[in-house]
Write a structure and sequence with these properties.
Shape: globular
Distance between the termini: 11 Å
Number of domains: 2
Number of helices: 2
Strand content: 35-45%
CATH class of the largest domain: Mainly Beta
Length: 299
Amino acid sequence: MRVSVSRGGVELLLDEGAATGWIIMPGVQGVSTPATALLEQRAAGQWGSYRTGVDVPAREVFFPLHLQTGGHSELLAELDRFHALTSPYSDEPVRLTVQRPGGHERSIEGFRTSAPQTQDASTWQPTAGWAAVELTLTCPDPWWRGSPRTWSWEQGVQPSFFDPRGNNTFLPLILAADRLLGEPVVVPVPGDVPASPRWIVTGPASSVSATHVESGRSWTVNAALGVGETLTVDTDPRVAATTGLSVVGPAGEDWFEYLEPPFDLWPLPVGEQSVTVGLAGSSAGSSAALEITPLHETA
């Protein structure tokens, strides 16, 4: 299993079977299903309760590591590199990536935390060039993320096929002029958890809408886009909670006020479902793209 830790373009490779370097030891935790608890309600006199949802708290991932180097100086340099890369004093999270058999990757992001040391000094042997190191990441988003997948719609003539390609993008649906509003498109969502789609629309267009066919949930942004201008609608609740920018206009401004009520920034359940997208006032150059990131319980 190939495991890496990265942040800001810097990567540290952890190896299960290596003789030197950063070696993963037995005792890895946090790579299986996360902790869950039912959210329940009950009324006075009611026997039992009824489920209202599921609570999934932040996840802790723990990797016990053995660092083996050629000597004291090399050991200290590697420890410095590790601590700089995983420093908890940065606002940017650390990314832990696991490569599965077949080359597919899943990753999770978190911040390094630590507890008071309980082991004795024998866990650090500078003259022998080795040290025992614990990596604990607290991950506010408890899901392991797969590779993003993208579907796109463009202005023009409808092709006779719609085939997925090997790089997780799909050949564009090319639809009629003036109003880019196609037949329902089947979107297969892999993973274990509903995914929050991210939409990127390029003008011209006078309004934009997207509908989840099976549930009837939809949203519409009533705002004009000029030629080449872009609108981004991110349905991930974490984006709204952390940045406040679920709907972003061409200049990066908040366009939430242009959502037509009642609106629903709907998620995509796991499995196959259909979506439609509409661009009123579209013409040559108008396009829309839907991107999802599969979410998994396990690494």
